[in-house]
Amino acid sequence: MPENESAQPQALGKIIARAWSDPGFAARLKSDPKAALAEAGMDVPEDVRVTTYFAEKDEVVLVIPAPP
Predict the structure, then answer these.
(1) Rounded CA separation 47/25 (Å)
(2) Phi, psi at residue 2, to the nearest 5°?
(3) Fewer CB within 10 Å, N side or C side of the chain?
(4) Domain-embedded: residue 65
(5) What whole-number distance in Å separates Cα of residue 13 and Cα of residue 58?
(6) Between helices 23-31 and 8-21, what is the axis angle to 10°?
(7) Quick check: 53 and 61 in contact, CB under 8 A?
(8) Does residue 56 fall inside a structural domain?
């Protein structure tokens, strides 16, 4: 993950845009999200689990992060 927390939203925005425009990348995000994120330049620590969910057009997904 970007070490600078302010860089995270920008990095994630680029990953989302790429998933929308690149079906192969979107498929890799589903099948092996850590590898796809690494491909996009985002390092994910070994002990972190990544879950990818593709929302439907009529759906809003609210993710509440773990407390610090």
Answers:
(1) 23
(2) -60, 135
(3) C
(4) no
(5) 20
(6) 120
(7) yes
(8) no
Tokens representing residue 13 in the block: 């925005």
Which residue bears the tokens 């939203």?
Answer: 9
* Separation between Cα atoms, residue 21 and residue 35, nearest integer Å: 18
User: Residue holding tokens 């620590």?
Assistant: 45
In a domain, 32, yes or no: yes
How many alpha carbons fall within 13 Å on the CB side of residue 11? 16
CA 5 to chain centre: 15
Q: Is residue 50 part of a domain?
A: no
Structure tokens at 3: 């070490």
Distance between start and end Cα atoms, the chain: 16
The first and second tokens of residue 37, run together, are 């994120």
pTM > 0.85: no
* Total domains, the chain: 1
**What's the domain range around 31?**
9-39
